[in-house]
Design brief:
single chain, 405 residues, alpha/beta, seven-stranded mixed β-sheet, 12 helices, 34% helix, elongated, binds MU-OXO-diiron
Length: 405
């Protein structure tokens, strides 16, 4: 059964929702699913903007068959060649032997690498400032390297203001009928997953996202809606999502808030983490969340680390090193280029306590612009009542730093 939504009088969402995939990119859990957005423009020529993942291709074809009827598909625009969007293009090329393909130089290179028979088709290699006219609609192409792959581009329909933004402004969570940002409570239900999507998928490439935002700035006045490859279409409140992207891509925290991440084998480090959380709340800092690093997928920790201004890393010492899941979190923060945060450290060990120094060394030497508070809580096996002053000092230090920053 076809499942389409009208975006404008002649533009349709023809994508698909996926609730079967457990791990996006075979690494990030997506318990609420994901959508692969594809858009069909019915102008004098019919134009498909991107496709869908392989598993969703039957749905894509039911959708475009329903809308095209006896018409052929004339044009395929590929903004992004990652297979969650381009896998079905192999079938599109086979089904429509006369379809003309637009993409960037690197887009065509990737089509060859993935083994698609694009050479049997008319192709148009585009770059910044190139345009194409499909009848009433004219589109302009803008390269968007490393947002999220090197070949990516965005396409602006200059006739009616639809911006096909590739991965930019996308989100996890299946649409399930709803398509537009004003049909969901984005701030309540989607923001955390949009942040988790951005930070884990594109987080490393903040400078490239900033470049794209600057490059596209002169066009923003023409944008009436943003049509990303995942998640809702933005047809109102575009400034809201642009502001979020500005924060995330410049590594600026969204909130004065604390995340406490603990690595605890028998509950003693956890106990200290909870006591610290309570003391922060006593001091009026209530945007505090506590995470067990062993039981929280690192993608959620990354999303939260991009949101908050302050982190507390509380780790046992393990094999004279940092507890492996905590080290994994540190490595992921480094890989995703997280920077410009203030960190307090809590260490624990029953002999040879090492984790505090090792975490400090990692933050200092392997990450950028990380400020480590001088106060550190050091625990020998369990946090004693006699250490309450130390806990208070740590909470005071975090509170004072939040007030100053
Ligand atoms: Fe949703 Fe980079 O692909």
């Amino acid at each position: 059964m076809h499942c389409v939504r009208k975006v404008t009088e002649d533009l349709y969402w023809v994508g698909a929702n996926d609730h079967r995939l457990h791990l996006f990119e075979n690494i990030h859990p997506i318990p609420q699913g994901v959508s692969y957005n594809s858009y069909l423009l019915l102008d004098e020529q019919s134009v498909l903007f991107d496709t869908v993942d392989w598993e969703a291709s039957r749905q894509l074809f039911e959708n475009i068959d329903y809308l095209l009827g006896d018409r052929p598909l004339d044009v395929l625009v590929i903004n992004h060649m990652e297979p969650d969007h381009c896998a079905a293009m192999e079938q599109v090329l086979k089904k429509y032997p006369k379809v003309k393909v637009y993409s960037t130089e690197k887009g065509f290179m990737l089509m060859h690498q993935f083994g698609y028979s694009v050479d049997e088709h008319e192709t148009v290699e585009v770059t910044d400032g190139d345009t194409a006219c499909f009848g009433r609609h004219t589109v302009a192409f803008l390269t968007a390297p490393m947002v999220h792959w090197p070949e990516a581009m965005i396409t602006l329909d200059t006739t009616d203001g639809s911006l096909f933004s590739a991965d930019a402004f996308g989100s996890f969570i299946a649409l399930d009928g709803k398509l537009f940002n004003d049909e969901v409570n984005f701030d309540r239900d989607w923001l955390d997953e949009a942040r988790r999507y951005y930070t884990n998928i594109v987080g490393k490439y903040g400078p490239h996202v900033q470049s794209l935002i600057n490059k596209a700035a002169p066009l923003l006045g023409q944008v009436k809606r943003i049509c990303p490859l995942h998640g809702p279409v933005w047809r109102s409140d575009i400034g809201y999502i642009l502001d979020k992207y500005n924060h995330w891509s410049s590594y600026e925290p969204e909130a004065k808030a604390v995340m406490i991440v603990y690595a605890s084998m028998y509950g003693n480090t956890e106990s200290a983490a909870q006591a610290l959380a309570a003391k922060l709340c006593d001091r009026g800092i209530t945007d505090v969340k506590v995470y067990d690093v062993s039981n929280t997928h690192v993608s959620y920790l990354i999303g939260e680390a991009f949101r908050v201004s302050h982190l507390v890393l509380a780790s046992v010492t393990y094999n004279l090193g940092i507890y492996p899941p905590m080290l994994n979190f540190l490595n992921d923060m480094k890989a995703l280029n997280l920077q410009n945060r203030t960190v307090a450290l809590v260490e624990n060990g029953s002999w040879a306590v090492k984790s505090g120094d090792l975490m400090a060394q990692f933050l200092d030497e392997q990450m950028k612009l990380m400020t480590i508070l001088n106060e550190r809580l050091s625990i020998a096996s369990s946090c004693k009542a006699s250490q309450e002053d130390e806990l208070n000092n740590l909470a005071d230090s975090i509170a004072a730093n939040m007030r100053e920053s």
